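Lab channel / #folding
Pinned by the channel admin:
"Please post every new chain as: sequence first, then the structure tokens as a reply. Keep commentary short and put observations after the output so the thread stays searchable."

First post following the new format, from NK:
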Amino acid sequence: MTIRNKKAWLVAALVGGASTLTGAGLLGAPIETPVSEVVSEHEGWEVRRYAPKLEAQVTIQGGTYREAVNRGFRVLAKFIFGANQSAESVEMTAPVSASRSSTIAMTAPVGASATGDEWTVSFTMPSEFTAQTLPRPEDPRIRIVEVPGGSWAAMRFSGRADARHEAITAELQAALKQSGLQIAGPIEVAQYNPPWTPGPLRRNEILIPLVEAAPADAGQ
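Reply from TO:
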């Protein structure tokens, strides 16, 4: 099967709701991931420093995490496979990320919900593009966002992200509290693999942005 035919097959599957995410090796080639370096390692988690990146984002109103990823993925997949003003394909990257916009997700026990919750589903754009050179999406729901670099706490886990992300989030939040690190923004659930990957081999992560420590000589 050619690459073009594989892409056509994938788009058909996505539009039909047959799959929810992608990951390394989806089309038989390496998949680009965001540039980062490990700042510190802890028991079961680590702090990473991420470089700035460009994301395509869509906001999904309400629903569960799994529903949001399904719906958001289909919108974004159409964009990268040619539904843009240049009719140009954009290489797939990993992970596919989703974050809950409601502040209750950060301040209340994990699993709490609130009326009006929103999920932001995002694809990282290949590093070859800038905000000026990236093809513009035809779908007005898609935003192109320049995400600044920063520090993030990361906890990796396997299995189904929709079944485990709440428990892993609670575990990482507790670890951050014990370490005295402060959360700076919405918590992300990141998935790196296609849906047919066996559960034990899947790479999922909870990613939490951290408040940057002020320089020791700040204000002097």
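NK: Residues 161-179 form the longest helix (19 residues).
TO: also worth noting, The longest strand covers residues 53-61.
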